[in-house]
Amino acid sequence: MFTPEQLEKINNKKCLSAEYLILSNEEIWKEVELEEFEKKSEEEKKRIFENNNKELLNKVRKVEEIKGKILKMLTDDLKKEGLSEDEIDFTLKLKDEILQENQDSKDQDPSIPIIDLDSDPFISNGLKLKSHQKQGQFKWDPKKIKLYLSDSQRDEKSISGQKLRKELEKQKVLNANLLDYLIKNPQLIPEDWKVGENGKTRYIFFWGTIYRDSSDSLYVRYLYWGGGCWRCHYYWLDDDWSASDPSAVLAS
Asked: Which residues have C-beta within 8 Å of that of residue 239, sequence separation ≥ 6?
């Protein structure tokens, strides 16, 4: 019988006459040229498609039957272990979630990086870590990131870092692990992060990680474009933040 992929090729008429389609059953494999299929009558073609669909439907039913038997065996085993109905339901739901996570991992496009926002951040000489919000594994997508500005940063206004930090408690700020990953992989950084709407260089802050010095002054790191490349630095929280100083947060 034709595989679904082969049927799709036939339906879309994308096969070349020299291509071969493979028919199969439990006993033999036989190669048939597409030209031979095209010569068949419409009635014969219809019969081939119907037989193929029946075979696929039977396979699906067989798989569902096997899954039902496995589920019953697992449920019976959990009952023998003394689990209640609610505990069994929770266990089976957890199993499905784990299987889905494993499938999602298999389906992951290897060209899209996964950034570890749980690991310990880089700490420069002379500074110590004040706080670091661990944020799991982040699948890189710039559309998931918003460059946030407080209303107090707009229209030529500015706000102190300490006040902005308090305001940002309502936002999902990103940590410095993402900054360091982008510095090492600058090709990922969107072009429009270089300059803001005001036409000035953007200094993008990663408030999920905050540092302190020996006198307990607080600092946050930022990313910016300067001298023909992406750079990073620290900024003192007692200074002011303007429209050129957005915060990298998760878009809602």
From this structure: 160, 161
Average pLDDT over residues 65-92: 75
**In the chain, where are the structural domains located?**
4-107, 115-250
One DSSP character per residue, 81-129 reads: TT--HHHHHHHHHHHHHHHHHHHHHHH--TTS-EEESSSPPP--TT-EE
User: Element (H or E) spanning 202, and its range?
Assistant: none
> Are 34 and 21 a contacting pair, CB within 8 Å?
yes
Measured CA to CA, the distance from residue 159 to residue 121 in angstroms comes to: 27
Q: Which residues contact 7 (CB under 8 A, 6 or more apart)?
A: 49, 52
* CB contact burial 97-110 (16+ within 10 A = b; e otherwise): eeeeeeeeeeeeee
Residue among 156, 184, 151 at smallest CA distance from 168: 151
CB atoms near residue 202 (< 10 Å): 21
Average pLDDT over residues 169-182: 96
CA distance 207 to 165: 8
**Cα 70 to Cα 198: distance, rounded to the nearest angstrom:** 62
Asked whether the beta carbons of 112 and 89 are under 8 A apart, the reply is: no
- Residue 29: pLDDT over 50: no
Entry field: residues in the chain = 252
Query: With contact defined as beta carbons under 8 Å apart, do 249 and 242 qualify?
Result: no
| 23: amino acid identity, one letter | L
